[in-house]
Amino acid sequence: MNRRRFLGAAAGTAAGAGILGGLKLDSASSARGTLVPQGKRSIILYSVRDRIGAATDMTGIPYGFALVLERLAQIGYHGIEFAGYTQNTAVLGRQITPAEIRQILDDNGLIAVGSHGSIPTDLNNTGQMDAFKVHMETALTLGQQYVGTGNDPTGGSNSPDQKPPWDAAIERWNVLGEMAAANGLKLYTHNHDSGYKFLLDTADPDGNLTRSSGVRKLVYFLQNTDPRYVHLEMDIYWAHVAQHRWRTYTAADGTTVEDVFDPGALVAGDSMRFPLFHAKDGKRDDTVAAGYVMVPLGAGDIDFTMFFDNMGAKGFHYPMWEQDNAPGGSADPGRSLRYAAESYAAMKALRG
Hints:
The protein is α/β, with parallel strands linked by helices and 352 residues long. It has a single domain, classed as Alpha-Beta Barrel (TIM Barrel). 33% of the residues lie in helices and 15% in strands. Strands 3-2-1-14-11-8-5-4 form an eight-stranded parallel β-sheet. Strands 6-7 form a two-stranded antiparallel ribbon. Strand 12 and strand 13 form a beta hairpin.
């Protein structure tokens, strides 16, 4: 898809081999097939944002797009999901361009898969729509297949519970998804745990929407958006947090109903709607509200072997390693890239 038409319409590292307990591999795993093929092993750059944004480092730790992407390729990653396209201007004396980032990808045998960027909340807002066009244009320059957002489809990082904002989001995303498809792209949204709360779609005796039919918000969104145009990137960690947190709803008659969320069953039931995942691991911790604490892939308690072995459409999905708390700050500036290597080793080790 050329720009004119748009505007008119190496090997894996062994690091981390000792942290694979959370993967629940059995003794015969080496004889079983890989669950994430090498060409699908991916990372969102938010996990290493500290190194992308660094100006320099005298300790030999990579910084900026060129050096960080080179290191990720050496680790073994193939797919890249972007969380912004800027680096410290001290690296080049100016800001890097999307075309320059594309050249770095090509030089290292990497591909751009998706991006978290600007998705309009108002189709009549010229500024938002122009930003969306730039988002798509950048995606085309980088060679992406998917274009999306890290926010809830209703617009923020946390989502409203009542039905009307979701109906508005469904209408809007169907339009935006068709726009993206006209430019050779697929539109996707991301989830946090609040997206799997129960939709308040039923009135109480006072006429207020405080009760639920039992459908979860993102499930309702998927059921009512066009499957040709609108897709979901499931964050597996946050989906398990939702399983821990959002277990009951108040039914139309005022009774409390228990319904425990099964992330794997949701994906297996409509696997092609989930082209991307955030492969983010968590260690169980009942002392925190989320029920989990983020850790490198393979060091936690989420059963990724079971998840990827039963999700369907084998070889279709791109799991992106993500760990929000990977950066170690000034005390440990190499931690995010070290965790990237450990997590790649864990992803590579998945067998089913």
